[in-house]
Amino acid sequence: MNSLHETNIALFKTLKELHLPIGKFVVFGSGAMLARDLSEGRDLDVLVTDELFQEYRNKPKWKIKKTDLDVYLCKDSIELWNIWRPGTWDTRELINNAEMIDDIPFVSLETTLRWKKMRGSEKDLMHALVIESYLKKNTTTQRGQNTSSL
Questions:
Q1: Where on the tree of life does the source sit, at the highest rank (predicted)?
Q2: How far is CA 31 from CA 16, 41, 44, 61, 119, in A?
Q3: pLDDT at 146 over 80
């Protein structure tokens, strides 16, 4: 079992308590880094199917938030998105190719690395270096398997 920051453990616990259906969501953003304790997080970005997004849009306590281009849902430290930017991402493909860690589907570190480089902020480029270093030191695991525990 990894030794995660307490804040990361709390984030994953909050996500699991939602009981989101497997096959309808994937953790994106820095989530794959948090699962490996490569960073400490404040929130989790979760990419969901349009169907699941509409379902949660009508649930109590979920707030609708807006960016310049998109709308997302927020409750506590969990953000639900039905589109991901920058870039063009196929939600279904990301969900189908998710890496399972402790029964939570995550976008692969390789995909996270591509996204971080696209964003290009100072923080994202620093994260990209951390991911590249991690990938060099570790062998890749098969997708679709429960590869480790949080």
A1: Bacteria
A2: 14, 8, 6, 23, 16
A3: no
Return the amino acid letter for 141: T
pTM reported for the whole predicted model: 0.84
Q: What does the pLDDT look like over 75-123, one tens digit per residue?
A: 999 999 999 888 888 999 999 999 999 999 999 999 999 999 998 889 9
Place of tokens 């902020």: 121
Where are the chain's structural domains? 6-107
Cα–Cα distance, 28 to 19 (Å, whole number):
17
Structure tokens at 8: 């990361």
Joined tokens for residue 24: 């309808």
CA angle, corner 111, sides to 17 and 141, nearest 5?
Answer: 75
- Burial class of residue 49, CB neighbours in 10 A (0-12, 13-18, 19+): middle
Q: What is the architecture, at CATH level 2, of domain 6-107?
A: 2-Layer Sandwich (3.30)
